[in-house]
Structures are given as C-alpha cells and as structure tokens.
Specification:
This protein has helices spanning about 15-25, 55-60, 65-75, 125-130, 135-145, 190-205, 210-220, 225-240, and strands spanning about 5-15, 30, 40-45, 80, 100, 105-120, 150-165, 175-180, 245-250, 260-265. The chain is an alpha+beta fold. The strands form 3 sheets. The protein has a 6-stranded mixed sheet. α1 crosses α3 and α7 runs antiparallel to α8 (about 225-240).
C-alpha cells in the first residue's frame, strides 16, 4: 500500500476478540452481518454486552484469562478515580469512587476482510472451535440466535499510533470522529503465516502443533511486559508457519517455563526455563 489511505469507520467486536487478532492468535472474527471482502476498517473494542454467554462459557479455557483482562482494561479506560480529599480523622482516608472520564476507548489496529464465510449448520462447529478462541457452545448459541454464523477472515495491521475515540453504541460499524491514516508497514502476521492460517481455517485442518500453540498462548499473556517472552512468541509464530520446522514433540516440566521442545532442526531458543 504505497498511497496514503484513510479510514473513517470501525468494526465493533468484543474487546477480547480484538486482542486475539492483535496478538496473532486468530485471524477470525464473528461479525453480526456479512462483510464484503476487501472492505477495510479499524477495530473498535466493545464491552461484554456483545457476548451472548459468560466469559467462561464463550471463550476456550486457554483464552479466558486474556478475555477477562481485556474487558477489565476496557472498563478502566472509561473510568477515573476522584482525587483524594482531606479527612477530619487522621487514621481514615476517603474512599476513591470511580468517576466517568471522557468515555473513550483506544483503537490500536485496522483490518481488511479477506474472506467472509457463511455457516448455516452445526456440523463443523467442533472443528472451528479448535482453530479459534470460541467454545463450541458459543458458536452453537450464535447459530441458534441468528440462524447462521458469519466468519470473517481478517488481515490485521497495527496503526502507526493508537487513537482515542468516544464510546459508541455497539452496532456493527461505527463512524470515527475523523479519518485515520493507515499503512501496511506493521502486519500482525507475515504473508506466509496468514496464508497458512487462512488455508487451515477454510479446510478446518486441526492444529498441526497444538503443543506449540499452547505455549504461544501462554507467552502472549506475558509479551506486553516481558521482552524475552515476546521474542520467543515471535519465534514460535515463525516455526508454526514453516513446514520445515520439523517439530517432533514436547517433554513437559512442572509448568510451560520448564518444558522442552524437540525439532529435527536445531532451535536453541527453545530453552523456556529462562522466561519467567
């Protein structure tokens, strides 16, 4: 994308779904309506009212903690604590009550719809769940409520700088207060990784290396604050995208930090004990 392009709309998705897209844990989204391929938009994080079940029932077990944190972070963006005030009693402190702030949320990424699939029966939901962040129960609930599921394949890119926008009603698309310039300089996934994920999702191929994906999920929760964990997560993304990695197996330790992974090729970075 050499020319300057601006976007003026945002697709509303539950905050955890956007976090999963930004982390590269999924390329899929569940819009309420069909999205035209090649359509582009920023990604607007919506609150838990957009999820038809509890977090524990809607998201798969390895994603629940991230989902809870995403909703909590979204709420904290909208609240301020009132300033502390003097008390007449030396040993007592006035309670800081939350006050509504400017009612804004942060938009960190934009996406282009590469494909939008319509699912009208439950036959493939178990396989689809294994490749995404949602439980089979969640997919069945959406299918029951809407009579079909729109599964959008999104190519996601980071915005040059996160933007702050006013809170909007949770419709599928919302207008931005002003156009946002975008570029393809910082994709979440490489071209090759995205193409493989897209093929895997279309054909419903089971995860080839579930052990590595489990480790990546654990590292994704640390990558915001731990640079070593972030680098290892990036290395795993590369390996998962390469059929030449030659993954052989995993020897479990007390937890994922002490696990050992074995490959036909030598990858010395896979000494996970140093990542705490």
């Amino acid at each position: 994308m050499n020319q300057i392009v601006s976007l003026s709309t945002a697709l509303c998705l539950p905050a955890p779904d956007i976090e999963a897209l930004i982390q590269g844990r999924t390329i899929a989204a569940l819009p309420k309506k069909f999205i035209r391929p090649e359509q582009q938009f920023t990604l607007y994080p919506a609150n838990s009212s957009t999820v038809p079940l509890s977090v524990e029932r809607y998201y798969r077990s390895n994603f629940i903690k991230t989902a809870q944190n995403s909703f909590t972070e979204l709420t904290s963006q909208k609240l301020l604590l009132q300033p502390k005030q003097m008390s007449l009693f030396a040993d007592k402190e006035q309670l800081q009550l939350p006050l509504l702030a400017g009612q804004t949320v942060l938009i960190k990424a934009w996406a282009r719809c590469e494909f939008c699939q319509i699912i009208e029966n439950s036959e493939s939901l178990a396989a689809l769940s294994s490749l995404t962040i949602w439980t089979r129960e969640a997919l069945e609930e959406i299918l029951t409520q809407r009579n079909n599921i729109f599964l959008a394949y999104l190519r996601v890119y980071y915005l040059p700088k996160a933007i702050e926008v006013p809170v909007k009603e949770n419709s599928q698309f919302v207008a931005l207060p002003q156009p946002v310039a975008i570029s393809e300089i910082k994709p979440v996934l490489s071209d090759r990784t995205f193409a493989l994920r897209k093929h895997q999702l279309k054909t419903l191929q089971p995860p080839q290396y579930p052990e590595l994906e489990e480790l990546q999920n654990a590292l994704a929760q640390l990558s915001h604050t731990n640079l070593s964990a972030k680098q290892l997560e990036e290395d795993i993304k590369i390996l998962l995208a390469s059929p030449l990695a030659g993954f052989v197996g995993r020897e479990k330790g007390d937890d994922w930090r002490s696990d050992r992974f074995y490959f036909l090729r030598d990858f010395p970075m896979f000494s996970t004990e140093q990542y705490g």
